[in-house]
Amino acid sequence: MRTRLHEVQGIDWFDAAILNAEWEGPLLRDVLLTAGIESQSKELHVAFACYQTKCQDDDWYGGSIPLSRAMDKDAEAVLALKMNGEILKPKHGFPVRVVVPGILGARSVKWLDRITVSQKESPNFYQQHDYKILPPDATDSESAAKYWDKVPPMMDNCINCVVLAPEDDETVKLGAAGTINVKGYALPQGSDGPVTKVDVSADGGKNWKRARIVDDGGDKASKWSWVLWEADVEVEKGENRSIFSKATDKGGNTQTAEQSQWNLRGVGYNGYESTTGITVI
Which residues are paired to 247 by β-bridges? Predict the structure, then answer.
């Protein structure tokens, strides 16, 4: 999505790099309490570090979250030992990784070596010089330099909604009722889940149709999880059709702009423009 506005620096994750799974392990809060940490000060931080391998921009990987978030009973931050009932695989962080639901995945450090409670955020490159929404006048590395120590690191995920089918530039056949079937997923913002509704438009946002939430996790549903949705949407035959989709969560957060404001790293995008270039026959 981000490159539709203007090219950015970094890996193009397209709609997202996302995983919805069941994690099992001790709560981070309980581990910190056992270690004698009782403070819930918003001035302190919990930093996570992995020294197993060098990264592209640093000799190690790390991230941090506010101590108050780690100590919150409802935040459910976990030191994961299992994923979907099985021991973690190496690619998922074996033997232990941090999982902080509601916060972008960059803070859920894999192959965890050390946990530190500190007065400062993690000094790691990926906490200090990445995953920050820089102002639009930061257009290259030189102009961005003055902002890195002024802009706060990203924490909560933005509310978001993605169309999975049809895909960009796909050709689809109009159904007998004059509709096409649209499917996707939606995520709540931070800890404000679950997603409560999804709306879909095939006429540039003039008219919206309420989608059906077909899978909310059932008996394993939580405020952190995605929902899968589906809608049959009226659309005219022709080329270069677009589909918009927007989610609303329990906290009242919703997507309000067709496209998000551009930023150098392309992070935090949650415009409701979802799929473009569709041909309807």
Answer: 198
Half-sphere exposure of 241 (CA within 13 A, CB side): 25
Contact indicator for 267, 158 with CB cutoff of 8 Å? no
> What is the rounded CA–CA span in Å between residue 256 and residue 279?
26
Give the separation between CA 4 and CA 205, rounded to whole angstroms.
18
Contacting residues for 162 by C-beta, under 8 A, at least 6 apart: 15, 16, 184, 185, 186, 245, 274
CA neighbor of 222 nearest in space, from 102, 123, 104: 102
What is the model's pTM? 0.91
Q: What is the largest CA-CA distance in the chain?
A: 66
Residue whose entry in the numeric block shows the structure tokens 């009782």:
38
For 127-154, the pLDDT digits (tens) are 999 999 999 999 999 999 999 999 999 9
Q: Strands 273-280 and 227-234: what pairing?
A: unpaired
